[in-house]
Automatic annotation (TrEMBL):
Pfam families: Inositol_P. SUPFAM superfamilies: Carbohydrate phosphatase. Keywords: Hydrolase, Magnesium, Metal-binding. This is 3'(2'),5'-bisphosphate nucleotidase. It catalyses: 3'-phosphoadenylyl sulfate + H2O = adenosine 5'-phosphosulfate + phosphate; adenosine 2',5'-bisphosphate + H2O = AMP + phosphate; adenosine 3',5'-bisphosphate + H2O = AMP + phosphate. InterPro entries: DPNP, Inositol_monoP_metal-BS, Inositol_monoP_superfamily, Inositol_monophosphatase-like, Inositol_monophosphatase_CS. Its EC number is 3.1.3.7. It comes from the Eukaryota. Belongs to the inositol monophosphatase superfamily. Its cofactor is Mg(2+). Converts adenosine 3'-phosphate 5'-phosphosulfate (PAPS) to adenosine 5'-phosphosulfate (APS) and 3'(2')-phosphoadenosine 5'-phosphate (PAP) to AMP. It comes from Gossypium hirsutum (Upland cotton).
Length: 385
């Protein structure tokens, strides 16, 4: 089996270039060349960055309080619950304010559990956090009621699909990382006609320098990255404090022996044994870097590693909010994202991704080698069962 690469000619490039992204256009007719028309998403990008940054500050506040308490020893999940719902309420509110006439949000949470008996205290904590965040920002002169917050959360009940415009949100991707004090992300993307056209990843605990330099914890507390990408416009990273952004590119490594790869921190989220077999076939010498959330996509987009393997256990169905923002952040930085059969990710079918085995991510030079190693490893694993 081989990957069918689609080639297009960009007016800004002298040679054809690989275009195997989250947002594949329809193939051109034989009588015309493929032309990529860059649309302006300035307003959408500004709103997405604002919403994700506000949500990140709310989550940072909750995580700081969590880590300063003994709540973890009590196995109390309420802090991540408060941060998760608060993040979704904030993002939903900001986007609806900015786009009141054309607003659809596909998100992970709804208010059903919060409306049950005993949920009032958590709802009040969420409401206070959301209003404090809005007040500190100063852009919106409003105080939300508890019902207003619950309604904002429930705005995320869209099913998405191939028609129209839909925002896609994971309010806290990496809840276990959040509880440990490690990596998590606020992941927000925009779909147009089922294609990802914009993505923002707010990664509050990701060091501003490469993970290979700082590890997961920066010694000088210089953490907090915002990655953002618009179709055709490249990928940028800036500190969460809003200072200047820099354009980023995926690793240019061509020799797999020199590559490092990311995988999920939790063994329950990905088949580490299969990843290890793939790495062995490639000759990768470095041990895997295991971190939570779509922060992996952000780190990969700036070249911290060269490969990301997401190989969930059989029966698991990937959700679009777990990959939409990360996918465009990597592809606009020059990377390639496919399933294990070499097919691009299809975000047009509602809340779920229909995939072959898992997701593989790397640069264009390494992808053929990685793809072959993945297919051989999957076949070997299947034949040994």
């Amino acid at each position: 089996m081989s990957i069918n690469w689609l080639r297009f000619v960009s007016p800004s490039l002298k040679k054809p270039s690989l275009f195997h992204l989250c947002h594949l256009p329809p193939p051109p007719s034989s009588s015309s060349s493929a032309v990529i028309v860059a649309m302006s998403y300035d307003k959408e990008l500004a709103a997405a960055k604002k919403a994700a940054s506000l949500a990140a500050r709310l989550c940072q506040k909750v995580q700081k309080a969590l880590l300063q308490s003994d709540v973890q020893s009590k196995n109390d999940k309420s802090p991540v619950t408060v941060a998760d719902y608060g993040s979704q309420a904030l993002v939903s509110f900001v986007l609806q304010q900015e786009f009141p006439d054309n607003f659809s949000l596909v998100a992970e949470e709804d208010s059903k559990d919060l409306r049950k008996d005993g949920g009032q205290e958590i709802v009040e904590r969420i409401t206070k956090l959301v209003n404090d965040s809005l007040t500190s920002d100063g852009s919106y002169n409003v105080t939300l009621s508890t019902e207003g917050v619950l309604k904002a959360i429930d705005n995320g009940r869209s099913e998405g699909g191939s028609q129209g415009r839909h925002w896609v949100l994971d309010p806290i991707d990496g809840t276990k990382g959040f509880l440990r004090g490690d990596q998590y992300a606020i992941a927000l993307a925009l779909l147009e006609g089922g294609k990802v056209v914009l993505g923002v990843l707010a990664c509050p605990n990701l060091p501003l320098t490469s993970l290979s330099d700082a590890g997961q914890h920066s010694p000088n507390n210089k953490v907090g990255c915002l990655f953002f990408a618009v179709v055709g416009g490249g990928t940028y990273m800036q500190p969460l404090d809003g200072s200047s952004a820099v354009k980023v590119q995926v690793s240019a490594v061509e020799n797999p022996e020199e590559a490092s790869f990311f995988e999920s921190y939790e063994a329950a989220h990905s088949m580490h044994d299969l990843s290890s077999l793939i790495a062995q076939k490639l000759g990768v010498k470095a041990p895997p870097v295991r971190i939570d959330s779509q922060a992996k996509y952000g780190a990969l987009s700036r070249g911290d590693g060269a490969i990301y393997l997401r190989l969930p256990h059989k029966g698991y169905r990937e959700k679009i909010w777990d990959h939409a923002a990360g996918c465009i952040v990597v592809t606009e930085a020059g990377g390639v994202v496919t399933d294990a059969a070499g097919q691009p990710l299809d975000f047009s079918k509602g809340k779920y991704l229909d995939l072959d085995t898992g997701i593989i991510v790397t640069n264009q030079k390494l992808m053929p080698l990685l793809f072959n190693a993945v297919r051989k490893s999957i076949q070997e694993k299947a034949s040994s069962l």
